[in-house]
């Protein structure tokens, strides 16, 4: 076990735990207004202080973690769900027109940053967390397609794949039974990285009003609300910011740690 | 035995070199042409996708502009004026054809040419992205080189720790913190707004400084990591050992051979970062109330001014695709092996 993995796993679990616990318990009702107690700095009653409506920031951060995790997780799911089969197909039919179409399609999607996709979707269907998921998810597809294809291409040259072909297995079966398990480690590491990028993207989209809409609590929205009050209540901006940083840092460290841990060469070198 | 004169040898060699370099130029041209065709196809498909998505939007811009009580003949006249009275295919070609000659149509809400609106806003967004790119490079290069030169030591660990943090920080949050520290507390900068280039270059640059720093810091963290790992790869190469063996000091070898070779992948990342910076400036403009493309597109979304959204999105996608194309060309110019590939 390496330090990155332990620290990353600890920070990430902390955030996931906060999100899960928020389903059954938060110190206060996260949407409960309490105007007399507004804009309190962190104190014994309200660990993270209160916002301009007197809502408890700690409870909002806990519930906000749900939004961030849900959006980023589903977006990674979309990326894996579409990108991996595309990458496997492109590799299995390498050099064919299908490979060419898939890879050029990937290049095209790559030209649309998730913010631009979100702008397009919002302009047509209106803002919402679902749009954020779709926008980030679409951006994830070429990432997973490319990484799967790249890794699968070198696997197709290996002898154990030749053996599988000789035994009469078709391309689809080889892709599923032999290629996929061998690229799984890579996908887990990339999944962690895309998950952390998804958290950042969700925060950005919610901040500009293209993501989660009120009353759904979201760290990005909390920052947008804090903007005009940052001079006299800096905790409104500091706390959601720290929440995002801790989550993204945790996931990035987890990704780095997993990569080292799952890569046998590095593991052997360590031992 | 016939004697070969040195002159004929030289002539032969120069002939060989010429034909080799001619072949190189031909390969490069062929590669550039292939990539150019691919660029055209990408742009064409992207324009179809953008147009199609916007077309899905419910509602008629003319009735949106004139309200529910508008007369049918007034609506028809406005539709004709906006070019909405023709078939969708015709409208697509009008839109694309217009863009090719710099005509983006007329804004539904402001009734002014979209091209003019975009051009005005680009004078904020483009300099902001370039300023941020310059800052990010200025921060990342020394940091990456320093870390690589001190691999495994305290300096390296500090830089790597800082970059790990830099990657995790959202740029708009950095922007808010910069406002809190440098605008509200220290009063060195304005908290928002743009002074305009008419008031002088330095005044304009001054009002873009905090936004540019906010955009640059997270990108600099990524770039510094790329610079470090690229340089570490190079430092392990045989020619670096040769450079040391022929008497260069560590520092001389690092600068003369290491940094120069490590720059190739770094330049690619810089090119790719430009498109992220342009898109990222859309969010940062919101923090600083800058009148750039971001503000334009968000105002257009809330006013359902779809032609503006359509054009700004196309412009951003055009920028990303073109920058990627230029990066590919630059890469192929430096690394001849790439020209053979498609």
From TrEMBL, chain A:
<keyword id="KW-0472">Membrane</keyword>
<dbReference type="GO" id="GO:0005886">
    <property type="term" value="C:plasma membrane"/>
</dbReference>
<keyword id="KW-0812">Transmembrane</keyword>
<keyword id="KW-0813">Transport</keyword>
<feature type="domain" description="ABC transmembrane type-1">
    <location>
        <begin position="65"/>
        <end position="255"/>
    </location>
</feature>
<protein>
    <submittedName>
        <fullName>Glutathione transport system permease protein GsiD</fullName>
    </submittedName>
</protein>
<dbReference type="Pfam" id="PF00528">
    <property type="entry name" value="BPD_transp_1"/>
</dbReference>
<dbReference type="InterPro" id="IPR035906">
    <property type="entry name" value="MetI-like_sf"/>
</dbReference>
<comment type="similarity">
    <text>Belongs to the binding-protein-dependent transport system permease family.</text>
</comment>
<feature type="transmembrane region" description="Helical">
    <location>
        <begin position="108"/>
        <end position="139"/>
    </location>
</feature>
<dbReference type="InterPro" id="IPR000515">
    <property type="entry name" value="MetI-like"/>
</dbReference>
<dbReference type="GO" id="GO:0055085">
    <property type="term" value="P:transmembrane transport"/>
</dbReference>
<keyword id="KW-1133">Transmembrane helix</keyword>
<feature type="transmembrane region" description="Helical">
    <location>
        <begin position="67"/>
        <end position="88"/>
    </location>
</feature>
<dbReference type="InterPro" id="IPR050366">
    <property type="entry name" value="BP-dependent_transpt_permease"/>
</dbReference>
<feature type="transmembrane region" description="Helical">
    <location>
        <begin position="6"/>
        <end position="28"/>
    </location>
</feature>
<feature type="transmembrane region" description="Helical">
    <location>
        <begin position="232"/>
        <end position="255"/>
    </location>
</feature>
<keyword id="KW-1003">Cell membrane</keyword>
Automatic annotation (TrEMBL), chain B:
<feature type="transmembrane region" description="Helical">
    <location>
        <begin position="204"/>
        <end position="224"/>
    </location>
</feature>
<dbReference type="InterPro" id="IPR035906">
    <property type="entry name" value="MetI-like_sf"/>
</dbReference>
<keyword id="KW-0813">Transport</keyword>
<keyword id="KW-1133">Transmembrane helix</keyword>
<feature type="transmembrane region" description="Helical">
    <location>
        <begin position="312"/>
        <end position="334"/>
    </location>
</feature>
<feature type="domain" description="ABC transmembrane type-1">
    <location>
        <begin position="122"/>
        <end position="327"/>
    </location>
</feature>
<dbReference type="GO" id="GO:0005886">
    <property type="term" value="C:plasma membrane"/>
</dbReference>
<comment type="similarity">
    <text>Belongs to the binding-protein-dependent transport system permease family.</text>
</comment>
<feature type="transmembrane region" description="Helical">
    <location>
        <begin position="161"/>
        <end position="184"/>
    </location>
</feature>
<dbReference type="InterPro" id="IPR045621">
    <property type="entry name" value="BPD_transp_1_N"/>
</dbReference>
<dbReference type="GO" id="GO:0071916">
    <property type="term" value="F:dipeptide transmembrane transporter activity"/>
</dbReference>
<keyword id="KW-0812">Transmembrane</keyword>
<feature type="transmembrane region" description="Helical">
    <location>
        <begin position="36"/>
        <end position="57"/>
    </location>
</feature>
<keyword id="KW-1003">Cell membrane</keyword>
<protein>
    <submittedName>
        <fullName>Glutathione transport system permease protein GsiC</fullName>
    </submittedName>
</protein>
<keyword id="KW-0472">Membrane</keyword>
<dbReference type="Pfam" id="PF00528">
    <property type="entry name" value="BPD_transp_1"/>
</dbReference>
<dbReference type="Pfam" id="PF19300">
    <property type="entry name" value="BPD_transp_1_N"/>
</dbReference>
<feature type="transmembrane region" description="Helical">
    <location>
        <begin position="262"/>
        <end position="284"/>
    </location>
</feature>
<dbReference type="InterPro" id="IPR000515">
    <property type="entry name" value="MetI-like"/>
</dbReference>
<feature type="transmembrane region" description="Helical">
    <location>
        <begin position="128"/>
        <end position="149"/>
    </location>
</feature>
